[in-house]
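A quick aside before the break. I want you to see a complete sequence-to-structure record at least once, exactly as it would be stored in a machine-readable document. Don't worry about memorizing anything.
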Amino acid sequence: MAALSPSVAAIRLAVRRALVDLPAGGPVLVACSGGADSLALAAVTAFVAPRAGRTAGLVTVDHGLQAGSRGRAEAVARWAEDTGLAPVEVVGVQVAGRPGGPEAAAREARYQALVEIAERHGAAALLTGHTRDDQAETVLLALSRGAGPRGIAGMPARRDLAGTPLVRPLLEIGRTETRAACTALGLVPWDDPHNSDPSYARSRVRADVLPVLIRALGPGVLDNLARTAALVAADNAVLDELAVEALSRARHPDGGLATGTLADLAPAVRGRVLRAWAHESGVPPAALSHRHVAALDGLVTAWRGQRASYLPGGLRVLRRDGRLVSEPPPVSPAGRVPVPQVTGAASEEATAAG
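That is the input. The structure line, written in tokens, reads:
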């Protein structure tokens, strides 16, 4: 009997660990593009899941951004069916017209499709093939954008995605290992040209930045960046728990927040409380920036009688009678939300709200 490839063994162990403590019932669904990372994950999951008493299926998303993309997605689906994965689905998505850049739009479309399919099949979890290298890239991009602890924490190994666990079993597995596993398993992965397109920031980090860091600091820099993400994520978890408790203490019966309670909080906790409250008030998480939270913080810690702060969507936040209160945007007779005209202390806040 041929010896088991170390890369295949490492991925099998990672998948077995990921399947522990998942909800009973429906299948685990692997999101697979046909690239080396997700292909190795799908192949190994097809082996491990039945031995763990679970069924495993596959979803491949056609973003329609390249010629022949539908054919490639269907080829991945045929391979999955031949491998014994079930259910297997190919889903097409519309990327154009979504907010944000092309990467963000494609990601939003992809996850929306995955959620719908997971709900339809009652999936126990969605598995994605993000690796340690992807995590290192994410940390560097977060640092370059001044994203703060939440961004530097990178991608969590597991999170809730609209009620379905989204699990990333390979965050401690390198990209070289997934390619080696594909070779050992006789699989031929597809190399997405977008991954080497310099118009994408992540591609530039992958092709230009990480190789320089590895040459200068050694190959351990990838593990160190991924470890940094894990350490920051652990700290974030504690701060988030403190913020939940603080938000409860600061609540006023009318839905506002007591500024006295907020002022006594540590800045790291207060910022999380203000962010969570803004989300509750209807501001989409992706639209809320550091500038918006800083403007709210100014109403608490630098109060000099300034006017309201405006958040994405036109939500108006002001300080009144010792508390922060939010007001929905006024609607004109034509049904349009007017752009607030503010001056002086509030002008920068309105500009930040976009």
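Two observations worth writing down. The chain has a mean pLDDT of 88. The first strand starts at residue 28 and ends at 31. We'll return to this after the break.
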